[in-house]
Amino acid sequence: MATVLVVEDERDIRELLRRYLERAGYAVVTSGTGADAIGHLQAGSADLLLLDLGLPDIDGFEVLQEATLLRVPVIALTARSSVEDRIKGLEKGADDYVTKPFSPQEVVLRVGAVLSRGNAHVEATDPIRSFGAARLRIDDARHEASIDGRELDLTPSEWGVLTTLASSPGRVYSRAELVNRVRGYEFAGYERTIDSHVKNLRRKLGDDQAAVVETVLGVGYRMGLTRDD
């Protein structure tokens, strides 16, 4: 049973989310402050963080940063609805973004989608794949990837982008295709969202990022390395 840490300073919203998540089969831990949330994260008591960015004690982005360092996927909750605010949250490491007011059923759907992305491909018949003469290695069973022997610390969304592109090297995926593969549904602003995840992924890939994830202008992205036999 996956455990969801709900961090929200409004008690009514916390309880509403707790009830819906528990009905969906999740264990739920709730918190009203950022400091308490960081304590739960450091104790390893969360498989996913549902985070209100507008917390009363500390900046919600500090909690987001801590979760990212601990490789806990994050869905950000906020009253800010602009695309720029969403992009900022995603660039800071959030895997998804929900604006208030929201449907609790939609939040449960998004929690399931993010958690399922983290578990994708574990049943692959060939769990370890290599590309570009073993420069890039993807171990699906262990949910690990490395470039030139250096392990990549990827969020679930970045992992989803990388493994989707790696499933068919050379094939061009449009942004709409990638968001459907990575998230399981479309939403407004998806093009800029995928661009943010690709930007973060390339930063982690390092100097030869463009050779791994290639941009096809006006279309989308593709894996630039060929798969090793």
Number of domains: 2
The profile of the biggest β sheet is: 5 strands, parallel
CA distance, first residue to last residue: 38 Å
CATH superfamily of the largest domain: Response regulator
Structural class: alpha/beta
Strand order of the largest sheet: 2-1-3-4-5
What are the low-pLDDT stretches, counting only 5+ consecutive residues below 50? Answer: 120-125
Question: Which fold name fills CATH's third level, the topology of the largest domain?
Answer: Rossmann fold
Number of helices: 9
Protein described:
The protein is α/β, with parallel strands linked by helices and 229 residues long. It has 2 domains: 3-118, Rossmann fold (3-Layer(aba) Sandwich); 128-223, Winged helix-like DNA-binding domain superfamily/Winged helix DNA-binding domain (Arc Repressor Mutant, subunit A), CATH 1.10.10.10. It is built from 9 helices and 12 strands. It has helices at residues 11-23, 34-42, 60-69, 83-91, 104-118, 156-167, 175-183, 190-205, 209-212, and strands spanning 3-7, 27-31, 48-52, 74-78, 96-99, 128-131, 136-139, 144-147, 150-151, 173-174, 213-216, 220-223. A 5-stranded parallel beta sheet has the order 2-1-3-4-5, sandwiched between helices. Strands 6-7-8-9 form a 4-stranded antiparallel beta sheet, covered by helices on one side. A 3-stranded antiparallel beta sheet has the order 10-12-11. Strand 6 and strand 7 form a beta hairpin. Helix 5 crosses helix 6 and helix 6 packs across helix 7 (175-183). It is elongated. Residues 120-125 have low confidence and may be disordered.
